[in-house]
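Researcher: Before we compare anything, I want clean individual predictions. No alignment, no superposition, just each chain on its own. First chain goes here; please echo the sequence and then give the structure tokens.
Model: Echoing the first chain and its structure:
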Amino acid sequence: MMKKVLFAFSLLLLFAPMALAIPQPQAEVEMMVSSVLDVLQQEKLSLEEKKAQVSGKVQEFLNVSSMSQRTLGAHWQGATNEQRQRFSELFVKVLEGTYLNRIGDYTDGEVQYLKQRVKGDKAIIDTKIVTGEMSIPVQYKMIYVNERWQVFDVIIEGVSLIRNYRASYGEIIRKEGYEGLFALMEQKVIAMQGTAGE
């Protein structure tokens, strides 16, 4: 299940690189999708050039602080400020590496917008990713912070990305502590960087 969630999340991030301050979250998602697809569909750009233009923008789209805290769950309270910062930095790199390594596969993907629900500073955007023979329902859970909508969780086919990471990372922390988790995350990032150059 984790591989399927990561696969679908990589599609999601490819189509949503940057969050801008606009009133309606769905309109914002549509703008984000258009901006990244404009890059992916430029035939004159090489794969590496496309990756370079998309790289780094995930930080603007995600509420990294909220995602990190929700991912660590109860372990967040027991972490030092340095450990929290280190986790957030590595978590972003893991997410970014995941979607950058899928750029070449989903240039012709399509995102269909189904419904948005807004309540106060929270919103849920129902979408569907369609590519080839695959059709994957995806919900964006968003929060309005500092005059911008950002994602704090993604629900893919009813499965929460944050809950998946929380389960796997929590088990590692229990067995190997924070340093063990950081070591494994660093190894993952290095492995993905090597794959990106292939």
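Researcher: Okay. Second chain, same rules.
Model: Second chain and its structure:
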Amino acid sequence: MTFPTIRIGIGLAAAARPAYITPARGCDLGGDRAVERLRARSHALLDAAYAAGVRYVDVARSYGLAEDFLAGWLAVRPQAVDVVVGSKWGYRYVGDWRLDADVHEVKDHSLDAFRTQYPLSHGLLGERLAIYHLHSLTPDSPALEDRALHLALARLRASGTRVGFSTSGPDQGEVVRRALELEVDGQLLFTSVESTWNVLEPSAGPALAEAAEAGATVIVKEAVANGRLTPAEDDPHPAAVQARRVAAELGAGVDQVATAAALAQPWAWRVLSGAVTIDQLRANLGATGLDLAQDLTGLAQPPREYWAQRSARAWA
């Protein structure tokens, strides 16, 4: 598998469903969040990303219609043959395209869920599906012990698809290390990792460095902390305050500084932009030109505090 060289990718978690936990969605998306409106917005965002050199796109079964939007875009963009696609299974979108849904997504890491969701992902994305992640693996997930699931994932791996997992929660480092010990027939099961890393929550860094050293592809998500490290929020945490101070000194946006801090990690293969608008995407891409002299992670939140705060963010 040949991978592109640009180190920023784009994820459609916030762009391809009407509600999410990122801020200022009313300003970014307006009041019209009908399916075709968000499809057109997502296609325009993908066009801008591709024109800027982005060649990795991250979607998931639970990101509304992200796989469908991406598949439609790829179908009419023959020049985008060099785009690498990663998707995720293990959550289902159940929000029914409503802003006020009581539940927007449901977690299921069972073998049955994999057997149900993979054909749906492959049916939309076909052979373009290069990486398939188990979505938001945590220490209590049955997927860590389910040998029947491991065998099914190994068969997918043998077919040529890279098999991996994403992580969430305060114990990401533990999960990365445990998951990367799993073997089937003497081969490591997982060779791709997608984890949250940002200046407010860098605790997974050492485990991600070990993963990269072992040969895994490491992808950073939530580099701007679901909007806390963007101009849309004035977060009072010391690390966020320091990031804004550095941004002012550099004449840059705080989102650019946060993205640049993630790009500075030598183990990061790709850092995802979760932009909803083209202007946000361009700001994130501007991080590639920043040279950060400061390590901003020394003021990070305790992981459990960070994740409790993230869990409390409202869907809008």
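Researcher: What stands out in the second chain?
Model: The CA atoms of residues 2 and 17 lie 30 Å apart. Additionally, The chain has a mean pLDDT of 96.
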